[in-house]
Design brief:
Strand 4, helix 2 and strand 5 form a beta-alpha-beta unit. With 241 residues, the protein is an alpha/beta fold. The strands form four sheets. A seven-stranded mixed beta sheet has the order 5-4-1-6-11-8-12, with helices on both faces. A two-stranded antiparallel sheet has the order 2-3. Strands 7-13 form a two-stranded antiparallel ribbon. The protein is globular and about 45 Å long.
């Protein structure tokens, strides 16, 4: 099963940090933020990871390469890039970016794949290969991991029904942790190369009782402001600036 790391955004709220560096490449705990996901996915057996890019897109292959520099620890790891910078409107948003990368994501014949945002820090998350295969063989279109609400998003996104489905009617509501499993059919009907937000596709899946959800209680930080990024940095990094 393949995975996509979403890394195409401009990171407006992170300016001026992101004026010259994409947010997923900012250092967190001694390495680029995106590498936490690459290594976690590789430990789970994922060997093909797609990274969608747009803002300062050349910096990603320049820093990360094609996966060869991870080969000593993760033999066979391959990084692929879905560069949206040449699209007429630039970055295609979450669902549009996934739609553009569908052929890469499903190149091995799999209909399911992992999705994780490149600008969240969740070092405790396990990309469980066994659960992923169970999901792939099941009826759901997607499965989301939700986190307790943070102060900057106190109302959350979805509740979790007793049946383990995402719901707009169940309380309490939690925040999507920007990680999940998805199937090709959720995106296949979207126009290729057009901007598309993810929320409408999720709402459609909720209406069809096809969106699973569970609560994740590990470390999770939406690295969305300079203050949140600074709070993650070790004292040694702060003092070296």
């Amino acid at each position: 099963m393949r995975a996509i790391i979403l890394a195409a955004g401009r990171g407006e709220r992170m300016r001026p940090l992101t004026d010259h560096c994409p947010k997923p490449l900012l250092p967190v705990m001694g390495r680029p933020l995106i590498e936490w996901h690459i290594e976690a996915l590789a430990r789970a057996g994922v060997r093909d990871i797609i990274i969608n890019t747009a803002w300062l897109s050349p910096q990603f292959p320049q820093l990360l390469g094609d996966g060869a520099r991870f080969a000593a620890q993760f033999p066979g790891l391959r990084l692929h890039y879905s560069d949206e910078s040449a699209e007429p409107g630039g970055a295609l948003e979450t669902a549009g970016g996934i739609r553009r990368a569908l052929d890469l994501l499903c190149a091995d014949g799999d209909e399911a794949f992992w999705v994780v945002s490149g600008d969240v820090y969740l070092p405790d998350f396990q990309f469980d290969a066994g659960f992923a295969q169970t999901f792939a063989q099941g009826p759901l279109d997607a499965h989301l991991w939700l986190a307790p609400n943070s102060p900057h998003h106190p109302k959350g996104d979805f509740g979790i029904s007793p049946q383990g489905l995402a719901s707009n009617d169940v309380l309490p509501r939690y925040t999507w942790a920007s990680v999940g499993l998805f199937k090709r059919r959720l995106f296949a009907s979207l126009p290729l190369g057009q901007k598309a937000a993810l929320r409408p596709s999720l709402e459609d899946a909720i209406a069809r009782q096809a969106l699973g959800a569970e609560l994740y209680r590990g470390t999770w930080v939406d690295v969305g402001t300079p203050q949140r990024w600074e709070a993650l940095r070790p004292q040694s990094e702060r003092h070296s600036d």
